[in-house]
Design goal:
Blueprint lengths: L1 E6 L4 H4 E4 L2 E4 L1 H16 L9 E8 L12 H11 L8 E9 L12 H6 L10 E8 L9 E3 L6 E3 L9 H9 L12 E2 L2 E2 L1
Parallel strand pairs: 4-5
Antiparallel strand pairs: 1-6, 2-3, 4-6, 7-8, 9-10
Amino acid sequence: MLKLNLPYPPSINHYWRHVGQRVLISKKGREYRAEVSSYLNRKRVEPLVGPLSVDIELHMPDRRRRDIDNVLKAMLDALQWGGAFLDDNQVMRLAIEKVVSENKSKPKRRTKDEIAAGVEKPKPLQGEAIVWIAEVQTENLAAADRICLRCQKSFASLGPANRICDGCNEDNREISPNAEPTWSGKRHNGKAL
């Protein structure tokens, strides 16, 4: 299994450019492919052969609203181009999760004293994509190894709906049945939708 920490991919809206009658990969798209390729070369990744399972955890660079499906094409193409696998049609199972940053504020500006003291300029938040790629057996695809959504470890799954390992399930059973879920999404009359 491969675990890769990739930079946040460009949106599909910025990945393609129309030049006359042709559709080409944009400058941002080419730079992203080159960055992923050099990362894979530094890690000496050999191309995986056979059917694959890909789990992606997207850490958003800021709190703007974003569609997570807009980054899949750029990321899978860059992984293929960089040599993580031979072709993206090898992907039999694909899971993606969005993680929104809790940091709501912009980086604070330096004071004159900090500039004089040589304090570096704060870097803007940059998102990242953590990718797990694992080979799967096609004859036993329903009971394939999956990545636990809670602890991020591989485990023998009982089927597509089983996404949490036994250890994390035990932790879930210990939680009180009367506990209120912490849902930060949409609400209607105070109740989570």
